[in-house]
Amino acid sequence: MENILTAITLIFQPYVIIVIAISAIYGLFVGSIPGLTATMATALLVPVTFFMDPVPALAAIVTMEAMAIFAGDIPGALVRIPGTPSSAAYVDESYALTQKGKAGFVLGVDVTVAAIGGLFGAVILIMLAPMLAEVAMQFTSFEYFWLACIGLSCSVLVTKGSLLKGLISLLIGLAMTQVGVDITLGYPRFTFGVTDFLNGFTFIPAMIGMFGVSEVMRNVSSEDCAYDAKGVQTRKMFSGIFKTLKRYKLNIGRSGLIGTFVGILPGAGADIGAWIAYAVSKKFSKEPEKYGTGHIEGIVDAGTANNAGLGGAWVPALVFGIPGDSITAIVIGVLFMKGLRPGPMIFQQTPEILYAVYVTFILANLLLIPFGVMAIKAGSQMLRVPRNMLMPAILMFCIVGSFAINNTVFDVGVMLVCGIMAYFMEANDIPVAPAILGIVLGRLLEDSFMVSMIKSDWDLTVFFHRPVSAVLGVITVILWSGPFIAAFRKWRQDGKDTDAENNTCKPNIDDVT
Questions:
Q1: Mean pLDDT throughout 307-322?
Q2: Nearest-angstrom CA–CA distance, 28 and 15
Q3: pTM for this one?
Protein backbone atom coordinates (compact mmCIF):
# COMPACT_ATOMS: atom_id res chain seq x y z
CA MET A 1 0.00 0.00 0.00
CA GLU A 2 2.88 2.32 0.79
CA ASN A 3 4.37 1.73 -2.66
CA ILE A 4 1.05 2.56 -4.32
CA LEU A 5 0.71 5.82 -2.40
CA THR A 6 4.30 6.72 -3.30
CA ALA A 7 3.64 5.98 -6.96
CA ILE A 8 0.48 8.12 -6.94
CA THR A 9 2.47 10.96 -5.41
CA LEU A 10 5.11 10.63 -8.13
CA ILE A 11 2.55 10.62 -10.96
CA PHE A 12 0.17 13.34 -9.80
CA GLN A 13 2.65 16.19 -10.00
CA PRO A 14 2.14 19.16 -12.35
CA TYR A 15 5.21 18.37 -14.43
CA VAL A 16 4.32 14.68 -14.91
CA ILE A 17 0.68 15.49 -15.71
CA ILE A 18 1.80 17.98 -18.39
CA VAL A 19 4.15 15.35 -19.84
CA ILE A 20 1.27 12.84 -19.94
CA ALA A 21 -1.05 15.34 -21.66
CA ILE A 22 1.54 16.26 -24.32
CA SER A 23 2.36 12.58 -24.88
CA ALA A 24 -1.34 11.81 -25.32
CA ILE A 25 -1.70 14.43 -28.07
CA TYR A 26 1.53 13.25 -29.70
CA GLY A 27 0.38 9.60 -29.65
CA LEU A 28 -3.01 10.43 -31.15
CA PHE A 29 -1.41 12.47 -33.92
CA VAL A 30 1.20 9.86 -34.88
CA GLY A 31 -1.17 6.89 -34.56
CA SER A 32 -3.73 8.46 -36.87
CA ILE A 33 -1.26 8.90 -39.74
CA PRO A 34 -0.77 5.69 -41.75
CA GLY A 35 2.82 4.52 -41.64
CA LEU A 36 3.82 6.41 -38.50
CA THR A 37 3.44 3.48 -36.10
CA ALA A 38 3.52 3.47 -32.30
CA THR A 39 6.99 1.91 -32.47
CA MET A 40 8.29 4.78 -34.57
CA ALA A 41 6.62 7.27 -32.21
CA THR A 42 8.37 5.63 -29.26
CA ALA A 43 11.73 5.73 -31.01
CA LEU A 44 11.29 9.44 -31.78
CA LEU A 45 10.34 10.02 -28.14
CA VAL A 46 13.50 8.44 -26.72
CA PRO A 47 15.80 11.49 -27.26
CA VAL A 48 13.31 13.62 -25.33
CA THR A 49 13.39 11.18 -22.39
CA PHE A 50 17.15 11.80 -22.02
CA PHE A 51 16.27 14.94 -20.07
CA MET A 52 13.56 13.37 -17.89
CA ASP A 53 13.55 11.43 -14.66
CA PRO A 54 12.53 7.74 -14.89
CA VAL A 55 8.89 8.28 -13.84
CA PRO A 56 7.92 10.99 -16.38
CA ALA A 57 9.94 9.21 -19.08
CA LEU A 58 8.06 5.93 -18.60
CA ALA A 59 4.75 7.78 -18.16
CA ALA A 60 5.27 9.50 -21.52
CA ILE A 61 5.90 6.18 -23.31
CA VAL A 62 2.96 4.38 -21.67
CA THR A 63 0.52 7.22 -22.47
CA MET A 64 1.75 7.69 -26.01
CA GLU A 65 1.49 3.95 -26.70
CA ALA A 66 -2.10 3.67 -25.45
CA MET A 67 -3.21 6.68 -27.48
CA ALA A 68 -1.39 5.69 -30.67
CA ILE A 69 -2.80 2.16 -30.77
CA PHE A 70 -6.35 3.50 -30.53
CA ALA A 71 -5.73 6.37 -32.97
CA GLY A 72 -5.06 3.86 -35.73
CA ASP A 73 -8.78 3.03 -35.66
CA ILE A 74 -9.78 6.55 -36.76
CA PRO A 75 -8.47 6.56 -40.36
CA GLY A 76 -9.36 2.86 -40.56
CA ALA A 77 -13.03 3.59 -39.90
CA LEU A 78 -13.21 6.81 -41.93
CA VAL A 79 -11.17 6.07 -45.06
CA ARG A 80 -10.25 2.35 -44.70
CA ILE A 81 -6.56 2.98 -44.01
CA PRO A 82 -5.47 1.53 -40.64
CA GLY A 83 -3.18 3.95 -38.85
CA THR A 84 -1.40 1.11 -37.01
CA PRO A 85 -0.88 -2.56 -37.99
CA SER A 86 -3.04 -3.83 -35.11
CA SER A 87 -6.06 -1.94 -36.52
CA ALA A 88 -5.91 -3.94 -39.76
CA ALA A 89 -7.80 -6.88 -38.22
CA TYR A 90 -11.12 -5.05 -38.16
CA VAL A 91 -10.66 -2.17 -40.60
CA ASP A 92 -13.10 -3.67 -43.14
CA GLU A 93 -15.76 -4.08 -40.45
CA SER A 94 -15.35 -0.47 -39.28
CA TYR A 95 -15.35 0.95 -42.79
CA ALA A 96 -18.49 -1.01 -43.70
CA LEU A 97 -20.30 0.65 -40.78
CA THR A 98 -19.03 4.06 -41.90
CA GLN A 99 -20.53 3.48 -45.32
CA LYS A 100 -23.84 2.81 -43.57
CA GLY A 101 -23.64 6.24 -41.90
CA LYS A 102 -22.57 4.88 -38.50
CA ALA A 103 -19.05 6.28 -38.29
CA GLY A 104 -19.76 8.14 -35.05
CA PHE A 105 -21.15 5.01 -33.40
CA VAL A 106 -18.31 2.72 -34.49
CA LEU A 107 -15.65 5.20 -33.32
CA GLY A 108 -17.49 5.63 -30.02
CA VAL A 109 -17.39 1.87 -29.54
CA ASP A 110 -13.73 1.83 -30.61
CA VAL A 111 -12.60 4.35 -28.01
CA THR A 112 -14.69 2.77 -25.25
CA VAL A 113 -13.55 -0.83 -25.75
CA ALA A 114 -9.98 0.41 -26.24
CA ALA A 115 -10.09 2.01 -22.80
CA ILE A 116 -11.73 -1.08 -21.26
CA GLY A 117 -9.20 -3.39 -22.90
CA GLY A 118 -6.31 -1.22 -21.74
CA LEU A 119 -7.63 -1.24 -18.17
CA PHE A 120 -8.12 -5.00 -18.39
CA GLY A 121 -4.49 -5.48 -19.43
CA ALA A 122 -3.32 -3.10 -16.70
CA VAL A 123 -5.19 -5.04 -14.00
CA ILE A 124 -3.69 -8.31 -15.22
CA LEU A 125 -0.25 -6.67 -15.27
CA ILE A 126 -0.66 -5.52 -11.67
CA MET A 127 -2.10 -8.72 -10.24
CA LEU A 128 -0.46 -11.55 -12.15
CA ALA A 129 2.74 -10.20 -13.70
CA PRO A 130 5.29 -12.64 -12.20
CA MET A 131 3.10 -15.71 -12.67
CA LEU A 132 2.10 -14.90 -16.24
CA ALA A 133 5.67 -14.11 -17.18
CA GLU A 134 6.71 -17.60 -16.06
CA VAL A 135 4.03 -19.11 -18.29
CA ALA A 136 5.18 -17.00 -21.24
CA MET A 137 8.76 -18.10 -20.70
CA GLN A 138 7.71 -21.71 -21.27
CA PHE A 139 6.94 -20.94 -24.91
CA THR A 140 9.61 -22.24 -27.26
CA SER A 141 9.85 -22.37 -31.05
CA PHE A 142 7.40 -25.30 -31.09
CA GLU A 143 4.64 -23.29 -29.39
CA TYR A 144 5.34 -20.23 -31.52
CA PHE A 145 5.00 -22.33 -34.66
CA TRP A 146 1.52 -23.47 -33.68
CA LEU A 147 0.60 -19.96 -32.53
CA ALA A 148 1.53 -18.62 -35.98
CA CYS A 149 -0.48 -21.43 -37.61
CA ILE A 150 -3.53 -20.55 -35.51
CA GLY A 151 -3.22 -16.89 -36.46
CA LEU A 152 -2.91 -17.69 -40.16
CA SER A 153 -5.81 -20.13 -39.99
CA CYS A 154 -7.99 -17.53 -38.32
CA SER A 155 -7.33 -15.03 -41.12
CA VAL A 156 -8.67 -17.49 -43.70
CA LEU A 157 -11.62 -18.73 -41.64
CA VAL A 158 -12.96 -15.23 -40.90
CA THR A 159 -12.90 -14.09 -44.52
CA LYS A 160 -16.22 -13.36 -46.10
CA GLY A 161 -17.12 -15.41 -49.15
CA SER A 162 -15.00 -18.13 -50.74
CA LEU A 163 -12.63 -20.00 -48.44
CA LEU A 164 -10.42 -20.78 -51.45
CA LYS A 165 -10.00 -17.09 -52.29
CA GLY A 166 -9.09 -16.39 -48.66
CA LEU A 167 -6.43 -19.11 -48.89
CA ILE A 168 -5.09 -17.63 -52.14
CA SER A 169 -4.77 -14.24 -50.45
CA LEU A 170 -2.92 -15.82 -47.52
CA LEU A 171 -0.50 -17.59 -49.85
CA ILE A 172 0.21 -14.28 -51.61
CA GLY A 173 1.20 -12.75 -48.27
CA LEU A 174 3.34 -15.74 -47.32
CA ALA A 175 5.05 -15.68 -50.72
CA MET A 176 6.04 -12.05 -50.15
CA THR A 177 7.86 -13.04 -46.94
CA GLN A 178 10.07 -15.42 -48.92
CA VAL A 179 11.84 -12.54 -50.63
CA GLY A 180 15.16 -11.68 -48.99
CA VAL A 181 17.95 -13.50 -47.18
CA ASP A 182 17.13 -17.03 -46.03
CA ILE A 183 16.76 -17.17 -42.26
CA THR A 184 18.83 -20.30 -41.66
CA LEU A 185 21.28 -20.45 -44.59
CA GLY A 186 21.88 -16.76 -45.13
CA TYR A 187 21.36 -17.20 -48.87
CA PRO A 188 19.42 -14.58 -50.86
CA ARG A 189 16.07 -15.76 -52.23
CA PHE A 190 14.06 -14.25 -55.12
CA THR A 191 16.17 -11.08 -55.10
CA PHE A 192 17.02 -11.21 -58.85
CA GLY A 193 20.26 -9.40 -58.11
CA VAL A 194 18.48 -6.34 -56.68
CA THR A 195 20.16 -5.19 -53.45
CA ASP A 196 16.98 -3.63 -52.06
CA PHE A 197 15.32 -7.06 -52.05
CA LEU A 198 17.87 -8.47 -49.57
CA ASN A 199 15.89 -7.17 -46.58
CA GLY A 200 12.61 -8.39 -48.03
CA PHE A 201 9.37 -6.44 -48.09
CA THR A 202 8.78 -4.17 -45.11
CA PHE A 203 5.35 -4.78 -43.63
CA ILE A 204 4.21 -1.17 -43.12
CA PRO A 205 4.58 0.00 -46.75
CA ALA A 206 2.84 -3.17 -47.92
CA MET A 207 -0.05 -2.60 -45.51
CA ILE A 208 -0.39 1.07 -46.47
CA GLY A 209 -0.43 0.13 -50.14
CA MET A 210 -2.96 -2.69 -49.80
CA PHE A 211 -5.39 -0.62 -47.79
CA GLY A 212 -4.56 3.00 -48.63
CA VAL A 213 -3.51 3.10 -52.28
CA SER A 214 -6.12 0.52 -53.30
CA GLU A 215 -8.81 2.65 -51.64
CA VAL A 216 -7.60 5.76 -53.47
CA MET A 217 -7.70 3.85 -56.77
CA ARG A 218 -11.19 2.57 -56.02
CA ASN A 219 -12.45 6.08 -55.28
CA VAL A 220 -10.83 7.57 -58.36
CA SER A 221 -12.26 4.87 -60.64
CA SER A 222 -15.78 4.98 -59.20
CA GLU A 223 -18.23 7.84 -59.36
CA ASP A 224 -20.48 6.36 -56.67
CA CYS A 225 -17.85 5.82 -53.97
CA ALA A 226 -18.24 9.11 -52.14
CA TYR A 227 -17.84 9.53 -48.39
CA ASP A 228 -20.80 10.47 -46.25
CA ALA A 229 -19.68 13.41 -44.14
CA LYS A 230 -23.08 13.62 -42.47
CA GLY A 231 -22.63 10.06 -41.20
CA VAL A 232 -20.03 11.16 -38.65
CA GLN A 233 -22.35 12.42 -35.94
CA THR A 234 -20.01 12.94 -33.01
CA ARG A 235 -22.83 14.28 -30.82
CA LYS A 236 -24.49 10.88 -30.89
CA MET A 237 -21.20 9.02 -30.58
CA PHE A 238 -22.12 7.29 -27.32
CA SER A 239 -25.80 6.79 -28.11
CA GLY A 240 -26.57 3.12 -27.45
CA ILE A 241 -23.02 2.41 -26.30
CA PHE A 242 -24.00 1.01 -22.90
CA LYS A 243 -26.55 -1.28 -24.51
CA THR A 244 -23.85 -2.57 -26.85
CA LEU A 245 -21.37 -3.13 -24.02
CA LYS A 246 -24.00 -4.94 -21.95
CA ARG A 247 -24.90 -7.18 -24.86
CA TYR A 248 -21.29 -8.14 -25.54
CA LYS A 249 -19.91 -8.14 -21.99
CA LEU A 250 -18.78 -11.76 -22.28
CA ASN A 251 -16.99 -10.93 -25.54
CA ILE A 252 -15.12 -8.12 -23.81
CA GLY A 253 -13.94 -10.40 -20.99
CA ARG A 254 -12.91 -13.17 -23.39
CA SER A 255 -11.06 -10.85 -25.75
CA GLY A 256 -9.38 -9.08 -22.84
CA LEU A 257 -7.90 -12.42 -21.76
CA ILE A 258 -6.88 -13.31 -25.32
CA GLY A 259 -5.23 -9.95 -25.92
CA THR A 260 -3.40 -9.94 -22.59
CA PHE A 261 -2.11 -13.49 -22.93
CA VAL A 262 -0.95 -13.06 -26.53
CA GLY A 263 0.64 -9.74 -25.57
CA ILE A 264 2.63 -11.48 -22.83
CA LEU A 265 4.26 -13.81 -25.37
CA PRO A 266 7.60 -12.25 -26.34
CA GLY A 267 7.46 -10.98 -29.91
CA ALA A 268 3.74 -11.66 -30.44
CA GLY A 269 2.30 -8.21 -29.73
CA ALA A 270 -1.19 -6.79 -30.11
CA ASP A 271 -1.43 -7.51 -33.86
CA ILE A 272 -1.85 -11.28 -33.48
CA GLY A 273 -4.11 -10.84 -30.44
CA ALA A 274 -6.56 -8.70 -32.42
CA TRP A 275 -6.73 -11.20 -35.27
CA ILE A 276 -7.24 -14.18 -32.96
CA ALA A 277 -9.91 -12.34 -30.94
CA TYR A 278 -11.76 -11.43 -34.14
CA ALA A 279 -11.67 -15.04 -35.35
CA VAL A 280 -12.86 -16.40 -31.98
CA SER A 281 -15.61 -13.77 -31.98
CA LYS A 282 -16.93 -14.97 -35.35
CA LYS A 283 -16.63 -18.62 -34.32
CA PHE A 284 -18.79 -18.22 -31.21
CA SER A 285 -21.12 -15.52 -32.52
CA LYS A 286 -24.83 -16.13 -32.92
CA GLU A 287 -24.70 -14.04 -36.10
CA PRO A 288 -21.53 -15.11 -37.97
CA GLU A 289 -23.10 -14.34 -41.33
CA LYS A 290 -23.02 -10.60 -40.51
CA TYR A 291 -19.22 -10.48 -40.19
CA GLY A 292 -17.59 -8.53 -42.98
CA THR A 293 -20.75 -6.54 -43.68
CA GLY A 294 -20.36 -4.07 -40.80
CA HIS A 295 -21.04 -5.98 -37.57
CA ILE A 296 -20.14 -4.25 -34.30
CA GLU A 297 -19.48 -7.50 -32.42
CA GLY A 298 -16.22 -8.16 -34.26
CA ILE A 299 -15.04 -4.61 -33.53
CA VAL A 300 -15.83 -5.00 -29.83
CA ASP A 301 -13.76 -8.19 -29.61
CA ALA A 302 -10.77 -7.13 -31.71
CA GLY A 303 -10.66 -3.59 -30.28
CA THR A 304 -10.64 -4.91 -26.72
CA ALA A 305 -7.87 -7.43 -27.41
CA ASN A 306 -5.89 -4.79 -29.30
CA ASN A 307 -5.37 -2.55 -26.27
CA ALA A 308 -5.35 -5.35 -23.69
CA GLY A 309 -2.19 -6.66 -25.31
CA LEU A 310 -0.30 -3.48 -24.40
CA GLY A 311 -0.29 -4.23 -20.67
CA GLY A 312 0.55 -7.87 -21.37
CA ALA A 313 3.66 -6.92 -23.38
CA TRP A 314 5.10 -5.14 -20.32
CA VAL A 315 4.95 -8.32 -18.21
CA PRO A 316 8.04 -10.13 -19.61
CA ALA A 317 9.79 -6.77 -20.10
CA LEU A 318 9.55 -5.79 -16.43
CA VAL A 319 9.81 -9.25 -14.85
CA PHE A 320 12.55 -10.82 -16.99
CA GLY A 321 13.92 -7.97 -19.08
CA ILE A 322 12.65 -9.68 -22.24
CA PRO A 323 10.65 -7.40 -24.56
CA GLY A 324 7.07 -8.43 -25.31
CA ASP A 325 7.04 -6.32 -28.47
CA SER A 326 9.09 -3.69 -30.29
CA ILE A 327 7.89 -0.88 -28.01
CA THR A 328 8.92 -2.63 -24.79
CA ALA A 329 12.28 -3.40 -26.41
CA ILE A 330 12.81 0.36 -26.60
CA VAL A 331 11.50 0.72 -23.03
CA ILE A 332 14.14 -1.70 -21.75
CA GLY A 333 16.79 0.48 -23.34
CA VAL A 334 15.31 3.55 -21.62
CA LEU A 335 15.36 1.74 -18.27
CA PHE A 336 19.04 0.85 -18.69
CA MET A 337 19.73 4.43 -19.71
CA LYS A 338 18.16 5.57 -16.42
CA GLY A 339 20.30 3.16 -14.40
CA LEU A 340 17.44 0.68 -13.84
CA ARG A 341 17.81 -3.01 -14.63
CA PRO A 342 14.53 -4.74 -15.56
CA GLY A 343 14.11 -8.16 -14.01
CA PRO A 344 13.02 -9.80 -10.75
CA MET A 345 15.15 -7.43 -8.66
CA ILE A 346 13.22 -4.37 -9.85
CA PHE A 347 10.34 -5.46 -7.58
CA GLN A 348 12.65 -5.13 -4.57
CA GLN A 349 15.07 -2.35 -5.49
CA THR A 350 12.75 0.23 -7.07
CA PRO A 351 9.14 -0.85 -6.46
CA GLU A 352 7.94 2.77 -6.64
CA ILE A 353 8.99 2.92 -10.33
CA LEU A 354 7.10 -0.28 -11.02
CA TYR A 355 3.94 0.95 -9.31
CA ALA A 356 4.26 4.27 -11.11
CA VAL A 357 4.04 2.36 -14.40
CA TYR A 358 0.90 0.61 -13.08
CA VAL A 359 -0.73 3.90 -12.10
CA THR A 360 0.17 5.46 -15.46
CA PHE A 361 -1.43 2.57 -17.33
CA ILE A 362 -4.69 3.13 -15.46
CA LEU A 363 -4.55 6.92 -15.85
CA ALA A 364 -3.66 6.75 -19.57
CA ASN A 365 -6.59 4.48 -20.36
CA LEU A 366 -8.98 6.67 -18.37
CA LEU A 367 -7.75 9.71 -20.30
CA LEU A 368 -8.14 7.78 -23.55
CA ILE A 369 -11.87 8.49 -23.73
CA PRO A 370 -11.81 12.32 -23.46
CA PHE A 371 -8.65 12.67 -25.57
CA GLY A 372 -9.93 10.07 -28.02
CA VAL A 373 -13.22 11.90 -28.48
CA MET A 374 -11.33 15.09 -29.35
CA ALA A 375 -9.23 13.16 -31.87
CA ILE A 376 -12.35 11.63 -33.42
CA LYS A 377 -13.98 15.05 -33.79
CA ALA A 378 -10.85 16.40 -35.43
CA GLY A 379 -10.43 13.37 -37.68
CA SER A 380 -14.06 13.34 -38.77
CA GLN A 381 -13.57 16.69 -40.46
CA MET A 382 -11.55 15.00 -43.21
CA LEU A 383 -14.76 13.57 -44.67
CA ARG A 384 -16.04 17.08 -45.28
CA VAL A 385 -13.16 17.71 -47.68
CA PRO A 386 -14.17 17.23 -51.35
CA ARG A 387 -13.09 13.86 -52.68
CA ASN A 388 -10.93 15.33 -55.46
CA MET A 389 -8.87 17.04 -52.72
CA LEU A 390 -9.02 14.30 -50.09
CA MET A 391 -7.70 11.47 -52.27
CA PRO A 392 -4.42 13.24 -53.27
CA ALA A 393 -3.89 14.21 -49.62
CA ILE A 394 -4.36 10.59 -48.51
CA LEU A 395 -1.97 9.42 -51.22
CA MET A 396 0.59 11.98 -50.03
CA PHE A 397 0.35 10.68 -46.45
CA CYS A 398 0.74 7.13 -47.76
CA ILE A 399 3.94 8.11 -49.60
CA VAL A 400 5.35 10.00 -46.60
CA GLY A 401 4.49 7.18 -44.19
CA SER A 402 6.08 4.54 -46.42
CA PHE A 403 9.22 6.58 -47.00
CA ALA A 404 9.60 7.35 -43.28
CA ILE A 405 10.04 3.67 -42.33
CA ASN A 406 13.56 3.23 -43.78
CA ASN A 407 14.02 6.53 -45.65
CA THR A 408 14.14 4.70 -48.97
CA VAL A 409 12.28 5.22 -52.24
CA PHE A 410 12.15 1.43 -52.56
CA ASP A 411 9.51 1.24 -49.81
CA VAL A 412 7.41 3.77 -51.71
CA GLY A 413 7.61 1.48 -54.75
CA VAL A 414 6.58 -1.49 -52.60
CA MET A 415 3.58 0.50 -51.38
CA LEU A 416 2.47 1.39 -54.91
CA VAL A 417 2.89 -2.15 -56.28
CA CYS A 418 1.02 -3.66 -53.30
CA GLY A 419 -1.74 -1.08 -53.75
CA ILE A 420 -2.22 -1.95 -57.42
CA MET A 421 -2.14 -5.68 -56.59
CA ALA A 422 -4.73 -5.24 -53.82
CA TYR A 423 -6.99 -3.24 -56.12
CA PHE A 424 -7.13 -6.09 -58.64
CA MET A 425 -7.46 -8.67 -55.85
CA GLU A 426 -10.57 -6.97 -54.48
CA ALA A 427 -11.92 -6.42 -57.98
CA ASN A 428 -11.95 -10.24 -58.24
CA ASP A 429 -13.41 -10.73 -54.72
CA ILE A 430 -10.09 -11.88 -53.23
CA PRO A 431 -9.86 -10.43 -49.68
CA VAL A 432 -6.81 -8.40 -48.69
CA ALA A 433 -6.75 -9.09 -44.92
CA PRO A 434 -5.32 -12.66 -45.13
CA ALA A 435 -2.44 -11.39 -47.28
CA ILE A 436 -1.64 -8.75 -44.66
CA LEU A 437 -1.54 -11.32 -41.85
CA GLY A 438 0.54 -13.62 -44.05
CA ILE A 439 3.17 -10.88 -44.31
CA VAL A 440 3.01 -10.30 -40.53
CA LEU A 441 3.31 -13.94 -39.46
CA GLY A 442 5.27 -15.42 -42.35
CA ARG A 443 8.68 -14.75 -40.83
CA LEU A 444 7.58 -16.00 -37.38
CA LEU A 445 6.23 -19.19 -38.96
CA GLU A 446 9.43 -19.86 -40.90
CA ASP A 447 11.71 -18.88 -38.02
CA SER A 448 10.01 -21.15 -35.49
CA PHE A 449 9.69 -24.06 -37.92
CA MET A 450 13.33 -24.02 -39.02
CA VAL A 451 14.66 -23.60 -35.47
CA SER A 452 12.45 -26.48 -34.30
CA MET A 453 13.62 -28.72 -37.13
CA ILE A 454 17.28 -28.00 -36.45
CA LYS A 455 16.82 -28.73 -32.72
CA SER A 456 14.91 -31.99 -33.38
CA ASP A 457 17.02 -33.26 -36.30
CA TRP A 458 14.00 -32.93 -38.63
CA ASP A 459 11.63 -34.98 -36.47
CA LEU A 460 8.12 -33.63 -37.10
CA THR A 461 6.63 -35.50 -34.14
CA VAL A 462 8.51 -33.20 -31.78
CA PHE A 463 5.80 -30.58 -32.29
CA PHE A 464 3.49 -32.76 -30.18
CA HIS A 465 5.96 -33.77 -27.44
CA ARG A 466 5.49 -30.77 -25.15
CA PRO A 467 2.07 -30.44 -23.43
CA VAL A 468 1.38 -26.82 -24.44
CA SER A 469 2.65 -27.44 -27.96
CA ALA A 470 0.45 -30.52 -28.26
CA VAL A 471 -2.65 -28.59 -27.14
CA LEU A 472 -1.97 -25.78 -29.63
CA GLY A 473 -1.33 -28.38 -32.34
CA VAL A 474 -4.65 -30.09 -31.68
CA ILE A 475 -6.43 -26.70 -31.83
CA THR A 476 -4.75 -25.99 -35.17
CA VAL A 477 -5.77 -29.38 -36.58
CA ILE A 478 -9.36 -28.77 -35.46
CA LEU A 479 -9.35 -25.38 -37.19
CA TRP A 480 -7.99 -26.91 -40.39
CA SER A 481 -10.47 -29.78 -40.36
CA GLY A 482 -13.48 -27.52 -39.67
CA PRO A 483 -14.14 -26.51 -43.32
CA PHE A 484 -13.81 -30.12 -44.50
CA ILE A 485 -16.24 -31.35 -41.86
CA ALA A 486 -18.69 -28.60 -42.78
CA ALA A 487 -18.39 -29.48 -46.49
CA PHE A 488 -18.92 -33.18 -45.72
CA ARG A 489 -22.04 -32.43 -43.69
CA LYS A 490 -23.38 -30.21 -46.46
CA TRP A 491 -22.72 -32.97 -48.99
CA ARG A 492 -24.58 -35.52 -46.87
CA GLN A 493 -27.50 -33.14 -46.32
CA ASP A 494 -27.72 -32.40 -50.04
CA GLY A 495 -27.75 -36.15 -50.69
CA LYS A 496 -30.58 -36.70 -48.22
CA ASP A 497 -32.58 -33.84 -49.75
CA THR A 498 -32.09 -35.33 -53.22
CA ASP A 499 -33.24 -38.76 -52.04
CA ALA A 500 -36.28 -37.21 -50.40
CA GLU A 501 -37.19 -35.38 -53.61
CA ASN A 502 -36.79 -38.57 -55.64
CA ASN A 503 -39.00 -40.52 -53.25
CA THR A 504 -41.65 -37.80 -53.43
CA CYS A 505 -41.65 -37.86 -57.21
CA LYS A 506 -42.11 -41.66 -57.48
CA PRO A 507 -45.75 -42.65 -58.23
CA ASN A 508 -47.55 -44.90 -55.78
CA ILE A 509 -48.28 -48.18 -57.68
CA ASP A 510 -51.24 -49.03 -55.43
CA ASP A 511 -52.87 -45.71 -56.22
CA VAL A 512 -52.37 -46.29 -59.95
CA THR A 513 -53.94 -49.73 -59.87
A1: 78
A2: 20
A3: 0.71
